[in-house]
């Protein structure tokens, strides 16, 4: 990081001097002519502005690499692989069994479901899910469904979740496998640029 910073700093100052000086600034200095302090200070200011944006970009990339995890959910004979972001503010637990809840995009969850369940989730409005659950016609899936209360923007609400067979998370220190988890269905996109499709509960990484 130090060498990259020095390289950018020196390059920005030299580029500024070449742009504003009439002629080669090195040639002028070799002839005993001094470079204007105004130009030099201007170059340093430009460099600091560049450094701010470069540092922000690099730190964001490093943060993403440390908080994004390749995750796989398995249910029956199906499996789906997606990217999950560690959400340290995720404090959702189920009432029954107190299992940690991982929020997952509905479109991702549908790939794990049988056709009748996926069709139900697509066609039935989310506000009618709870009163129409039996219409999905999959008794095995219904036996795994859990309703999760949560609070958002000052209001109490309910979240539909279900227990997968297993959840596998790849980390730098190894692979974590757990069946003590519930996947909460989020109808929408969790990331604008689709960088991740799920919000990982911090308790899972402590297993």
UniProtKB/TrEMBL annotation:
Keyword Transmembrane helix part of the UniProt annotation: yes
Stored InterPro entries: SpoIIGA (IPR005081)
Transmembrane intervals: 34-54
EC number: 3.4.23.-
One GO process term, biological-process aspect: proteolysis
Alphabetized UniProt keyword annotations: Hydrolase, Membrane, Transmembrane, Transmembrane helix
Group of enzyme by EC: hydrolase
Listed GO MF terms: aspartic-type endopeptidase activity
Name this polypeptide is given: Sporulation sigma-E factor-processing peptidase
The organism of origin for this protein: bioreactor metagenome
């Amino acid at each position: 990081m130090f060498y990259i910073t020095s390289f950018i700093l020196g390059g920005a100052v030299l580029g500024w001097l070449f742009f504003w000086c009439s002629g080669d600034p090195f040639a002028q200095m070799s002839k005993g002519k001094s470079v204007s302090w105004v130009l030099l200070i201007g170059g340093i200011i430009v460099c600091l502005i560049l450094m701010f944006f470069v540092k922000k970009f690099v730190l964001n990339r490093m943060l993403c690499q440390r908080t994004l995890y390749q995750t796989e959910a398995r249910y029956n004979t199906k499996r789906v692989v997606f990217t999950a972001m560690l959400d340290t503010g995720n404090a959702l637990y189920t009432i029954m069994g107190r299992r940690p809840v991982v929020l997952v995009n509905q479109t991702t969850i549908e790939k794990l479901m049988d056709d009748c369940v996926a069709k139900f989730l697509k066609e039935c409005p989310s506000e009618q899910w709870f009163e129409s659950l039996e219409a999905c016609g999959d008794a095995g899936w219904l036996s795994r469904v859990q309703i999760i209360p949560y609070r958002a923007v000052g209001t109490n609400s309910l979240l539909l979740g279900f227990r997968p067979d297993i959840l596998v998370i790849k980390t730098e220190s190894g692979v974590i496998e757990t069946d003590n988890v519930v996947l909460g269905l989020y109808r929408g996109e969790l990331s604008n640029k689709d960088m991740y499709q799920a919000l990982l509960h911090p308790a899972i990484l402590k297993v």
